[in-house]
Amino acid sequence: GRVDPDQEMIDIRMNPIKHKILVISGKGGVGKSTVGCMLAQVLASQSCKVGVVDLDICGPSIPKLLSVEEQVVVNTEYGWKTLLSPHNGIKVMSVGAMLKSDRDSVVFRGPRKTGLIKRFFKDTFWGKLDYLICDTPPGTSDEHLTAIKVLKNVKPDGAIIVTTSQGVSIATVRREVNFCRKMGVKILGLVVNMSTFMCPCCDEVTNIFPEDEIEKLSEEQKIPILARIPIDTRVTACCEVGRNPVIEHPDSQAIKCMEQLVKSL
Ligand code: ADP
């Protein structure tokens, strides 16, 4: 067939990146971005070269989580220069860095959004990376379709589905599973976030939601549960201000769970 020069450039940019992982969720607020960033931080703390591309054009939360809010994207002869997170040198690309203030909203619609996402892959100078973590907006929309399409030639490793074990979240997980299967994206597994709460003073563990439904789904669909991550107030406190929970609270349950998850990748 005809060669698409954009696609050729994307392939050139993506080929030196060993692993590409999509982080998806059916609903917002389940901790998808937090889990994606913790994953990036754990990998980076183990000496991997890591990039995070924020495909949430309308609600970017990565710049804050990775503490690159003050930085702006500049164009160089090699392409768009990535933002550099102080957390183990994670490279970041996000539309958040292209807005003048966080009160600016992005009113990009369909084609412009698609165009920008393409450029994140085509024009960003990522260089050699071990992992590129792709954070996506909740649900399944243009952003996902575009990312999957542009990564087709370089075969992403697959998707991690982040959810809580509430009934309403699980219903949307089924939709994500069907979407991935339809699009030919491998599902690496589920991450059940905020699954328990550990009391900071006595370490007593309390379950938050019953987990039989998510376990049933996992069995039925033959999708492993990669991790169950407790609610961890130390993690939240760090993330809220853009500090690195992996460095500050390496012995916290949430980070230990993320380290287990990384081993299973
Ligand atoms: P999403 O990307 O799914 O919309 P976020 O990652 O923004 O969700 O997380 C929503 C909120 O929940 C944030 O305030 C975040 O700090 C908090 N949060 C997420 N996961 C945890 C966790 N395991 N422990 C404590 N707080 C968490």
UniProtKB/TrEMBL annotation:
InterPro entries: Mrp/NBP35_ATP-bd (IPR019591), P-loop_NTPase (IPR027417), YlxH/NBP35 (IPR033756)
GO cellular component: cytosol
CDD domains xrefs: Mrp_NBP35
Keyword annotations of the record: 4Fe-4S, ATP-binding, Iron, Iron-sulfur, Metal-binding, Nucleotide-binding
One of the Pfam families matching this protein, by short name: ParA
One MF term in the entry's GO annotations: 4 iron, 4 sulfur cluster binding
GO biological process entries: iron-sulfur cluster assembly
Protein name per its UniProtKB record: Cytosolic Fe-S cluster assembly factor NUBP1 homolog
Origin species: Mytilus edulis
